[in-house]
Design goal:
The chain has four helices and 18 strands. With 294 residues, it is an alpha+beta fold. The protein has two domains: 132 residues, Diaminopimelate Epimerase, Chain A, domain 1; 148 residues, Diaminopimelate Epimerase, Chain A, domain 1, CATH 3.10.310.
Amino acid sequence: MTTVTAEKYHGTANDFLVLPADAPVADRAAFARVHCDRETGVGGERTGADGVLFLDLDATTRPVRVTMTLVQPDGSVAEMCGNGARVTAVWAARATDAREVLIETPAGDRHAVVQSDGVTVEMGRPSFEPTDVPLAPDHDRPLVEETVEGLTVTAVNTGVPHAVAFVDDVADIDLDSVAPPVRHADVFPEGANVTVAARASLDDDAREGAPGEPAAFRQRTFERGVEGETMACGTGAVAVVAAAKRTGRLDTDGPVRVSPPGGDLVIVVPDDGPATLTGPVEREFEVELEVPEA
């Protein structure tokens, strides 16, 4: 059996296996399905992973360029992943000592800066346009606070489609029950990630910081392609802030803290430019993995 060397990284507990694009993996979908499985996949602190990043580095350019391909646990390819982009930037920085990285994704190029306290990635401009989300052809207006399969959602594309629902308390939501019908709803012909969010009080707990800090939201996301809840979702965090602004829940161009279960992310969604996502990245370990036969 052929083996390959992979590295395990995570960004706020959204975890990925990382391989160079030229690794001898003929069937990437099969590789992801085997090694990302949460019951039987790669070991470590958490079994399995939320996806496999195949990365093609060009260190001759300035800034250095990396083509990022994220294969998800169901074998599909995601157009964009905010936490995966941060992992990609750190991986490239470790290989080249560069601190600025241009990441090529199916959703477009994304500029990233690696700093001592985290990574900031430009995430593009969120779009509510029906053709961008995309919505079903017969839905010719933005989907803003409409009921879809029993959940009141706002649809926005932040590199991938999200259906965002604002609730009183994200902990009260049975996400595994309410999310799949929305994820597969007819109005989303390509499917959608389902994100629930709630405004966080600054005195909820220590993570909310000192009085006077910016607005904060708690977040949980059921991810298309993972087909389950992840510990963090970067595109989902951007979607929360964009949807909060669109629905009048938030009025700021400044930083907003969004807290999925895996940690804290800082999001900026300006009115006149690309959104940004800032958060930590950790390298966990290196491992030899078997390559399934094609």
